[in-house]
Amino acid sequence: MSQASEALSDVFREEHGRILATLIRSCGDFDLAEDALQDAVATAADRWERDGVPDNPGAWLTTAARRKAIDRIRRDQRFAAKLDALGALLEDQEGIAPDPVDAHPVEDDRLRLIFTCCHPALAPEARLALTLRTLCGLTTAEIARAFL
Questions:
Q1: What's 3-92's CATH class?
Q2: Residues 5-63: pLDDT tens digits?
Q3: How far is CA 63 from the centre of its chain?
Q4: Which residue has better confidence, 116 or 67?
């Protein structure tokens, strides 16, 4: 294990809780804080290997994670603003055909689940196994026996 990897492992083990608590307090979102910290650790793994371990690695991780969280918040805000602008633009336009999916929503939850289980992106075997498991209530062992 390299010196940078070892230092990162030590810092993460010792400082993880403190950094996470700081991020949660700063951004108010547990999931965002965890994601930002993990992104900062991934960045540290690359950067520290190349540039060396910083003098205060815990502070480096905290700062990097806080910046990652801020970037994510800004990106989400820009996306929301663009989505609002797009919605306003669509409302202003006349004669827009409704989305065929929205025109006939599937009201039956079970039928909606069947459509989900049988999505063409899934392999045929996966579709069948998923449908048998979720809709018919068969166990994994029963489904396996059926395929043999």
A1: mainly alpha
A2: 999 999 999 989 999 999 999 998 999 999 999 999 999 999 999 999 999 999 999 99
A3: 22
A4: 67
Contact residues for 7 (Cβ-Cβ < 8 A; gap 6+): 48, 53, 57
Instruction: Enter the pTM of the model.
Output: 0.58
Which residues lie closer than 8 Å to 58 by C-beta, 6 or more apart?
Answer: 11, 14, 15, 18, 19
Contact call for residues 12 and 38 (beta carbons, < 8 A)? no
- When the pLDDT of each residue in the chain is averaged and rounded to a whole number, the result is 86
For the chain, the domains span 3-92, 101-147
**Residue 25 CB coordination number (10 Å):** 9
How far is CA 135 from its chain centroid? 27
- Rounded to whole angstroms, what are the CA distances from 144 to 98, 119, 127? 43, 21, 14
How far from each other are the two terminal CA atoms of the chain, in whole angstroms?
Answer: 46
